[in-house]
Amino acid sequence: MNKIVYVLLISALLGCTHKEENMIRIGAAGPMTGDQSKMGVDLRNAVELAVAEWNAKGGVLGKKIELLAGDDQADPKQAVSIANKFINQKAVALVGHWNSSCSIPTAKYYNDANMVMISPATTNPQFTLQGFKRVFRVCGTDDQQGRVAAEFVLKSIKPKRVAIIHDKTAYGQGLAEYFKKALGKNADVVYEGGILQRDPDYRAVLTTIKQKRPELFFFGGIYPEAGRLVRQAKEIGMNVPMVTGDGVYDPTFIKIAGNEAAEGTYVTFGKEPQGLASAQSFIELYKARYGDPGPYSIYAYDAANILLRSIAETRSTDGSKLAEYISRNTFHGAFGDISFDKNGDVTVAPYVIWQVKNGKFVQIQ
Amino acid sequence: MFTQQLINGLALGSVYALIALGYTMVYGILQLINFAHGEVYMLGAYLGIVLLGVMTYYGLTAYSLPLALLLTVSLSMVFCAIYGAVIERIAYRPLRNATKLAPLISAVGMSIILQNIVMLTQGKEYKNLPPQFDSVGFTFLGANVSPVQAFILAASILIMLGLHFFVAKTRMGKAMRATSQDRVMAGLVGININQVISITFMIGSALAAVAGVMVTLYYGVVHFFMGYLAGIKAFTAAVLGGIGSIPGAMLGGVLMGVIETGVSSVTLHLSPTVTLTGSTLRDAVAFAVLILILLVRPAGLLGKAGREKV
After folding, report:
1. Which of A137, A275, A361, B248 is 20 to 30 A (C-alpha) from B54?
2. B277, part of any domain
3. Does A359 reach chain B within 8 Å, measured CB to CB?
4. Position B287 in a domain
5. ipTM of the complex
6. Which domains, ranges and CATH numbers included, belong to chain A?
7. How does pLDDT run across B49-108, given as a tens digit for each residue?
8. CB proximity under 8 Å: A 126-165 to B
9. Which chain A residues are within 8 Å of B219, Cβ to Cβ?
10. How many helices (H) and strands (E) would you count in chain A?
11. At B170, which helix (H) or strand (E)?
12. Helix (H) / strand (E) containing A81
């Protein structure tokens, strides 16, 4: 009996390997479970949409495209195991990861396996500075956004006293440090420290910060923590605005914080895609399939299209060839024209300031 | 600022105390560490978020928040009490006369089963509840007490007083104390042991349900794994206060909350580049305090050491 099962199993496995040859595989990786799950799911949906569009037109190089989804749970250890899994499954390229702390350590794995990696959301500058030529990103970097945030704050709030908090991740701590650097000597940093991700209670830290009487506090981190921070700050009677980065730009932030506590929060993020003519068909298609696009869906969609276009144009799945093609050309994405500099960063990365007004993000500058 | 931190700590501590009571009552009667207790608290939190969501949908929270809260708390207490009794019936009672480790393992298994049930039915995602109370509260000795903190403190004090009265004055309370002193003797004098044990589990689980609903209101976030750490902390609180002692669990829980908040509020600037934030060392310091206290008082703060069983 057992032998029959084994034989069946093995033949089933052999059947799979045989089919593989007619497939081109690309990966999509991000946090798809846990408290940041919306970001990974937004990313996967967008890549899935791009893949479906290409497959409807017959795939690339005469083969169907298969999407591999990898849930890294925003955990670097998990991200490395996803990377190994994709490499074993002979994926050609990857859209991901979402978190800087996952993208930075995995870049080497993908690059060494001759895979192209395009991250739609990794903003820590170090990501593309590791010297890997197959690694790109389609979003801006934290030194740019830290500078935009600091310049805005110095011009419009003119604070004397500033508190800085971060979530101790590569992204959060990096962003906080760039913000502090850009502030320079123009404001006193009266508090600087880290908090733990997934910790439900930040009241103690906030009470300590309140005592230092800052005129605003900057947070480097992601929306679940940001939501609890403003909510609890309001509860202990700390009525100063929070200034934060792209990781907080999502309606879930306002849902966690509640409209009242979220009101007035400043966030640096890219421009609104809604108004762009090139983005209209993407937004419509996405809405029809999955509901409202997330903040990084359009970036992930463009990243997937860049990968598939370069496979089609170079008529190759060789990572080095693809990387060379990507770095030399300009792509007309849903989010506008995208081209890359020598590190693999986008040449134009405009960060603007958004503010929460009446329970919605509004672009104010 | 000290009062503010104290109130933050007391609110957190009350939640730990309510969960710790369940551990300590069960231990007092069965000498069993009920590792599934943290999951009952998690269930209470989920019930809180689901019930409040439903009530918001039908406009009840807008009509009368106190009524909606009362309904939510009572329904989750009833539901979790039944859960607690069922867990006891299927996972612990059949093993009551087995070796002491058997029910312990059964408890760990129960905890994993419950976590997975919630994960499979409710999903792995974090669920959020928008704030139900106004965020601005009243000022008390220079501290801002938010309405949700006031609710937690008031409800915890009421419940703990009620429990104290129940155990000290009622017939069932007397039966519980008798059972905890000597289960066999209590049975011989006509106390229905199985009923006493079931009721102990029901009360402990109902208290955990209250803690769960409170946490839902306080933090607005629930997920299937939340019972694990809260359970460990509450168990620690019960040990700190002296496991088996009801006032000990209350004291231990409150102390645990206050210590954690105290540690979290400290930031040390060791050098311009190296900063130690208390909030990241909180758990380490809290457990270090536990070890120190147990070194001085091995039975916990209010526990009685080495009682002879005759």
Report:
1. A361
2. no
3. no
4. no
5. 0.87
6. 2-139+275-338 (3.40.50.2300), 143-270+351-363 (3.40.50.2300)
7. 999 999 999 999 889 999 999 999 999 999 999 999 999 999 999 999 899 899 999 999
8. none
9. 200-201, 228
10. 13, 14
11. none
12. helix A76-88
